[in-house]
Design goal:
Helix content is 75%, strand content 0%. It contains 27 helices and no strands. Helix 14 runs antiparallel to helix 15.
């Protein structure tokens, strides 16, 4: 069973690991650092972690109690390192940081410094509209006023009362969203594809909101958008998602609701809309909104350009992969030169994978194979979801099959079934299991279309009613590949 320490250490990115090493090194000069040895062992061993082995390496006497104390200390040190590294990332973190500092000075009875940090916390919380944190800030100020007469509590009691009214409104928003979420999910279950979200939304607001101003507020409408779009994405209901986003984006634009403060929401909405149009095979419309997304990343001095450039390029690649594969390859090669993408290993891996897929469709299997080998040997490959890894491995086997490397295919299929046994037992991944069966039979079949076993498997993959759009299930479209083979 994975321990809290293992989860914590394995969650760290490269910068967090580097920061921890610097942070830990400040407090001890002893070369024999058992905490760092344990940290490095956890990080490098991953799923192969063996507690008995590391206990023996660190403690000759196999003293488990000493090891458990070390483990708890390491959790504490890694947690402190994360706090030091991230305390000023975002207004909410800073508010909490100021509150902690204020508490420290209150405990020291240094009320002047405590007040200094509380005022800073108040300003940050107000700027971020963090009403839940403002409740804590006002509570701390009122508590301080009983110890330090320089603070008049009456003004802050009034502020806290006003803030609680806002919090009540936010809670009402959350109540409405909870009901709306439930109703959308129930409607989806019974009438997939026939749901009209805007009608359901209007009816829910009329029924549960007595405050008309609240229902019309930008904050409420933004929250509704985020909840509804998330549900429709999870349900893969792209038809209703497109319809809802078109109406919502047009309304928000017309009413000038977008601003610097919610620019992230605008870019996210455009990204969802581009992807929904693509899923609904409206490729030219998808490209039109992709260009709008690209232009919007330049707003507010390119505030969020680095974050959304990968989505912009992904939208272009997806659409041109259907319309013009050579153009898709050009865009991938251009995207690889983007600074914000090139510095991120995960983005680079996805672009290499996209390039391999385009070469596969163009029957340039040697190029595809080289890229897939590169992807498989990336140090971050094992961090991907196991099912996604499985799909990449199967794609590589399909490329090997096309290249005539039947010995490799024959050898790797049993290994793949062993490594991904848990995933292949899951019925959700039955298509991957079927494709492995197909490849195993195909390498020894004298004629593909004449083999009854292969015909049976191909029928299962092509006529799978659960996957009208097999791109939702397959990395390479198994249906199209089989059709090109004459099935």
């Amino acid at each position: 069973m994975e321990s809290a320490l293992n989860r914590l250490v394995n969650s760290l990115d490269k910068e967090e690991i580097r920061h921890f090493k610097l942070f830990a090194g400040k407090y001890a000069s002893d070369a024999d650092r058992k905490d760092l040895s344990l940290f490095d062992y956890i990080r490098k061993s991953g799923e192969r972690y063996q507690e008995e082995r590391i206990v023996k390496l660190l403690y000759a006497s196999e003293n488990k109690n000493s090891f458990y104390r070390l483990r708890n200390r390491l959790i504490s040190e890694v947690s402190k390192s994360l706090l030091v590294q991230h305390y000023d990332e975002g207004d909410l973190n800073v508010v909490l940081y100021y509150l902690i500092l204020s508490r420290i000075f209150q405990q020291k009875q240094d009320y002047k410094n405590a007040w200094f940090y509380l005022r800073r916390a108040e300003k940050k919380a107000e700027a971020a509209s963090a009403h839940d944190l403002l409740e804590s800030v006002y509570g701390e100020i009122i508590r301080l006023s009983s110890e330090w007469l320089e603070v008049d509590p009456e003004d802050y009691i009034r502020k806290r009362a006003a803030n609680r009214e806002v919090l009540s409104g936010i809670q009402q928003i959350d109540d409405i969203l909870a009901v709306l979420t439930y109703r959308i999910k129930v409607s989806q279950n019974f009438s997939k594809g026939n749901l009209k979200v805007t009608r359901l939304l209007d009816a829910t607001i009329r029924e549960f909101s007595a405050n008309k101003e609240l229902a019309a507020s930008p904050v409420f409408r933004m929250k509704v958008y985020q909840s509804v779009s998330r549900i429709l994405l999870q349900e893969h209901n792209y038809i209703e998602l497109e319809r809802y986003l078109m109406e919502t984006y047009a309304a928000f634009t017309r009413e000038k609701l977008f601003s610097r403060q919610n620019h992230d929401v605008k870019l996210q909405m455009l990204t969802y809309l581009v992807n929904a149009l693509f899923k609904n095979k409206k490729y030219k419309d998808s490209l039109r909104y992709a260009e709008e997304l690209g232009k919007a990343t330049d707003d507010f001095q390119q505030l969020l350009k680095e974050k959304y450039m990968v989505y912009y390029y992904n939208a272009l690649i997806n659409n041109y992969a259907v319309l013009n594969k050579e153009r898709a390859i050009e865009i991938i090669l251009k995207a690889q030169q983007e600074r914000s993408i090139a510095k991120n290993k995960f983005y680079r891996i996805f672009l290499d994978l996209q390039l391999a897929m385009q070469y596969f469709d163009l029957k340039e299997f040697k190029r595809s194979s080289k890229l897939l080998v590169k992807v498989r040997h990336e140090e971050n490959f094992k961090l991907f979801d196991a099912v996604f890894q499985l799909k990449i491995v199967i794609m590589e086997l399909m490329v090997r099959y096309e290249l005539g490397d039947t010995d490799i295919v024959e050898r790797e299929i049993p290994r793949t079934r062993k490594v991904f046994s848990e995933q292949l037992e899951d019925t959700a991944n039955s298509r991957q299991s079927l494709m492995l069966d197909f490849l195993k039979k195909a390498i020894s079949a004298s004629g593909l279309r004449n083999d009854t076993g292969l015909r049976k498997i191909s029928i299962q993959l092509i006529d799978d009613e659960g996957y009208a759009d097999s791109s939702d299930a397959d990395l390479i479209d198994y249906k199209e590949w089989l059709k090109h083979k004459g099935f």
